[in-house]
Amino acid sequence: MSHHPTTSTVIDLFAAHGNSEYGGESVTQEEHALQCAELAIAADAPDTLIAAALLHDIGHLLHDLPSDAPERGIDDLHEALGGRWLETRFVAAVTEPVRLHVDAKRYLCAMEPAYEAALSEPSRVSLALQGGPFTQVEVAAFEENPFWQDALRLRRWDDTGKVDGLVTRCVADFADVLDACVLPGAE
């Protein structure tokens, strides 16, 4: 079966860059993305949120920064880079949770005191670079986005999809899900 060119591009990106380190965690970018997508499936999420879970860190596959950029004090802004890349290719129900997944971490740190304490060390390092917990004004603005609750779901999968050696499907197994979420007219 032939898939949309956008889907093929995503599969190629993971093949080329998915084996890179996932920011100090014990899994690769691809392993993390697949674990997050599996968690979305287990939560009975719609295809758009499964696609968002798979693609949420695609910005890491698009930049040329070193894997230890956060330890060097560099925020790679992967959520913005990934969001911009995805927005011309996928529907908003995919791209908005991706664009908001870092803000969701900041939101949860502001709203749930135990959440920040439970973050992995690499996630705490990146939180500081990303601006720390939201202010109440930022919380209110975040809640104005129609996809804010989807972003929170994605964030929680992002936090737990870091299990070394977990067996998952492969990226190509999600091709039909990705095809279903491609923006009409995308190339």
How would you portray this structure in words?
- With 187 residues, the chain is mostly helical.
- The protein has a single domain, classed as Hypothetical protein af1432.
- It contains 11 helices and no strands.
- α5 runs antiparallel to α6.
- The radius of gyration is 15 Å and the shape is globular.
- The mean pLDDT is 89.
Query: What number of domains?
Result: 1
What is the residue-averaged pLDDT?
89
Helix tally equals 11
Shape: globular
Distance between the termini: 18 Å
Rg, Å, rounded: 15 Å
Spell out the helices and strands N to C: HHHHHHHHHHH
Structural class: mainly alpha
- State which percent range the strand residues make up: under 5%
- Kindly report the name of the CATH homologous superfamily: Hypothetical protein af1432
CATH architecture: Orthogonal Bundle
Q: How many DSSP E strands?
A: 0
- Class in CATH? Mainly Alpha
Q: What name does the CATH topology carry?
A: Hypothetical protein af1432
Instruction: Extract low-pLDDT stretches.
Output: none
Give helix % range. Answer: 55-70%
Oligomer state of the chains in this structure:
single chain
Largest β sheet strand count, sense and barrel closure: none
